[in-house]
Amino acid sequence: MGDSIGPRLYSCYKCRNHVALHDDIISKDFQSKSGRAYLFTHVRNVFEGPEADQELITGLYTVSDVHCTDCREVLGWKYDKAFEESQKYKEGKAVLEKFKIVKENW
Ligand SMILES: [Zn+2]
């Protein structure tokens, strides 16, 4: 990248595919089974696995795994539907596990 200044990015920890922008973080206070995770308004260069209903701490959701398009690693999940009214803001947004993404351009 040399001296170029661009937006602060997060990349896949395995293949360095750019998957999210720092500016798109909504919350850094998410918790997954394996530790801390970040909620993003949207992510890119990923594809979604099949949808499944899942009972999480905050209620019932329809979620799908989020995979890196390059190496196919599962990086987190997307909330396709939230059944609790108070959790509707998560719909269409994605969570990436902190240990599966690395900072670029910081
Ligand atoms: Zn990857």
Provide key terms for this protein.
106 residues; mainly beta; Metal Binding Protein, Guanine Nucleotide Exchange Factor, Chain A; 3-stranded antiparallel sheet; 9 strands; 0% helix; 57% strand; globular; binds zinc ion; Yippee/Mis18/Cereblon; Yippee; Yippee_fam; Protein yippee-like
What does this structure look like?
By secondary structure, this protein is an all-beta fold. It has a single domain, classed as Peptide methionine sulfoxide reductase (Metal Binding Protein, Guanine Nucleotide Exchange Factor, Chain A). Helices cover 0% and strands 57% of the residues. The protein has a six-stranded antiparallel β-sheet with strand order 3-4-8-7-6-5, with no helix packed on it. A three-stranded antiparallel β-sheet has the order 2-1-9, with no helix packed on it. Strand 5 and strand 6 form a beta hairpin. The chain is globular and about 40 Å long. Bound molecules: zinc ion (ZN). Zinc ion binds next to loops.
